[in-house]
Amino acid sequence: MITISKIPDGKQWAEEIAQAISKGMRTNFYASAEEFLPLVKEGRISKAAFPGGSYYFVEKENQIDVYFFLEKETAPVEVPKLEKLLVLEQVALAKTGTSPALEEWETIGFEKYLQRKRLFLSAKKTEAEQREISFCKEEETETILGMMENAFEPYTSALPDLETLRKDLAEHRVIAAREGGDLLGFLRFGREKKVSVLWQIVVTPEGRGKGVGEGLVRDWIALERAEVAKFQLWVREDNPPAMKLYEKLGFLSDGRIAPVMLRK
Q: Is the pTM of this model over 0.85?
């Protein structure tokens, strides 16, 4: 049985992550370690080391995210029982499969939960379109966050907190679809260098069947096309209507998939 201990030093931890990545170990950790330093200070990141690898556990309110570093010939080892649900997400190229194979994780108690695929659209492939774009208002912050929480599954949706959402609203990164004074849907997006990323899109029951989702995506493209090189989003593979919409608008798969597994 492996032992879990808190990460005491953020700088040392960041150096450990950099060394593990430089060794070419199999991993699902692709973020910058510096992004996690506040969580180290809060005592929310723990480590479990074992021959051939290590796990890092990031504690959230309702779950614990699991990141791994494994040498090429090392299989996942049993994780001790923890009080919260464990969430393990990996990103890989579809043509090469996931690394390591999902079956390895099933042997230690993880179950398949969902899988997403990444789509993109080159800005050069879009046409200029004159659209009257409306934005959500700052006084709608809590309403919008509540709509997100009702619309998305709780473990991997990466919903913003109130402070982040308020900032996005103030900077016009949440597009609104309205009918009269009623909010029928919204689309939240952001920038990663020259890529415009769709973070969340929600259509209310009253807005379905009215082309609200397509209108929001067209608004997003019209708003950003002159400033970015491409558009990007993740979509669940078990959501055919969304897949059909994005394909209609010209989005293509870039080969990236993200399978998610849970251990209850």
A: yes
